Amino acid sequence: MLHTTIAAIRPLDEPAMVAAGELHGRLTKPAGSLGVLEELSVRLAGLARACPPPLPEPAAVAIFAGDHGVHAQGVTPWPQEVTAQMIGNFLAGGAVVNAFARQAGASVTVVDVGVATPLPPAVPAQVNGPSGRAGNPTRPRLVAANVRPGTRDLAVTAALTRDEALAAVETGIRIARELIDAGASILLTGDMGIGNTTPAAALVAAFTGVDPAEATGRGTGVDDPTYARKIGVVRAALARHAPDPTDPLGVLAAVGGLEHAALAGLILGAAARRVPVLLDGVIAVSAALAAVAFAPDAVGALVAGHRSAEPGATVGLRHLGLDPLIDLGLRLGEGTGALLALPVVTGAVRVLHEVATFDSAGVAEK
Ligand SMILES: O=C(O)c1ccc[n+]([C@@H]2O[C@H](COP(=O)([O-])O)[C@@H](O)[C@H]2O)c1
Ligand SMILES: Cc1cc2nc[nH]c2cc1C
């Protein structure tokens, strides 16, 4: 499944991009006045092989959740159980991601790809959120796809076997296909996993070659001693495993996480179907580096939603050649930054659908 998916990923379509660029020149606005939105809409036309490309509606957020053996090294102050507990919160509609998804009209799918502790008993989902605010007609959904109960400690041994990493990647591909088959026109990445900024930093350093200190941040907000320990853990893991960046499955297995691997699969699955993926924070960016190592043309499907405060996100986006749409200092994860960026993407495409040309509106050109 991975190999056929990779083989299906093709470059952006030049004629559709030329058509979108020409259309922009005829719309009732000074050339280039929509800045980044113009280039974004041209790329999305190339991805869809159509001008205008489809509006990115409806949108679907996929939150991949997993736990991390490296938690044992004291790289985060939060107990591991919080991963499972937050899944309960997502399914009940009470997390930040739910509030933003209701605002954006996006569906929320939570995928347990490797949670280590028992999930809380099902709480009745408050579809419109605890406040009763309407906006999203669908209930958050849980997909049970646990590959193993958390990774092994990457400070001691490989986090995953290659087969486990492959199973997680293929779960991501399957979820992309299911969401697209159910009608999603854009996929938004989400993640939940206490400790997961440590493997994200290791993946960023492995794929970009930057020093571990440049790729490592404070995650949920760790103090100075924890931060120093975290950099040391990432540095030692890279020295121990010496992951080969041309072997993305090997890198994911050595220093990655189950949600990182599944997100790489989600990106590949969407790119193969020529559906855009709006990236959230550092976990998604680290997964995107893996996806692009599997299939360089997958970058054509990627839109960077926001600039996470986590430094590895900026390092990874630079390597991918992507500029984030918004920069709000967020470092939550869950898909929250991607959801806030979604109206920018929709606006970029809507212009090509709805704005009059100089000709049709009788507006004089310069
Ligand atoms: O999205 C980001 O860039 C981001 C930055 C910092 C933290 N997070 C979230 O915080 C958790 C991991 O933080 P930590 O400190 O436990 O490694 C995990 O659930 C992530 O979704 C997410
Ligand atoms: C409370 C909490 C919520 C989160 N959402 C994503 N990562 C998180 C980490 C914590 C600790």
From TrEMBL:
GO terms for biological process: cobalamin biosynthetic process. InterPro entries: Nict_dMeBzImd_PRibTrfase, Nict_dMeBzImd_PRibTrfase_bact, Nict_dMeBzImd_PRibTrfase_N, Nict_dMeBzImd_PRibTrfase_sf. Signal peptide: none annotated. GO terms for molecular function: nicotinate-nucleotide-dimethylbenzimidazole phosphoribosyltransferase activity. SUPFAM superfamilies: Nicotinate mononucleotide:5,6-dimethylbenzimidazole phosphoribosyltransferase (CobT) (SSF52733). Its EC number is 2.4.2.21. Belongs to the CobT family. This is Nicotinate-nucleotide--dimethylbenzimidazole phosphoribosyltransferase. The gene is cobT.
